[in-house]
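With this grant's support, we have settled on a layout for protein records. One resulting record is reproduced below.
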Amino acid sequence: MKWTILFFSVFSLVNIQAQIATGVYHADENVDGLSMTHELKIDDTYFIHTIYTKSPAGFIKTLGGFYTLENGIVSVKLEFNSNYEENTITSVELPVQVVGGDLIIGGDANLTFKKDPSFTQPLDGKWLFATRGPDEGQERRGENVPRKTMKFLLDGYFQWIAYNTETFAFSGTGGGTYTAKDGVYSENIQFFSRDNARVGAELNFTYEIKGDDWHHKGKNSKGAPMYEIWTARK
């Protein structure tokens, strides 16, 4: 089965009433002998669907944006779509059914997504990259700038995405699990669109919250020193 058929087969419309609990959900699917992981991150307003493989490590695709729920249909106005150049899709509609806390996505694949346990941490939320630190009054990126890099942290999982909301140009994404405690932020990479060899790496940083800003210091995935300032997305 081709990836394009697989990815969008879950979007066939079924009118099912549903109430979705915010959190992170996973579903596994075997296609042509390859085990693929589907990951959903859903908070009160935002939805991300990512597909990747664990063995061998490989990124397949991701899409996400702000969503509404009505009559069992989740309508997502996309901010990013890693396959936009191929399919030019800027919105999706997903039928959902909630059974015992699981999400069943209608369509040919009929995937059942299991919810991960809730795991609240200080940095949970959506963050937009603002500027390189330290904060010395330099120009900052923000909500009104089409070129965005966002981090979405929820229930022990993180994902960053670099994209352009005007052109739908997609620059990359990566994600996995994280912890944030006592000023130390740690990431374990489970997928990385730019370099599969980085999967399994653990990165450690220090962090400090100043108002709506997250000051993030350490070394990047290439080992170079970094100081970034991220701002909370409202």
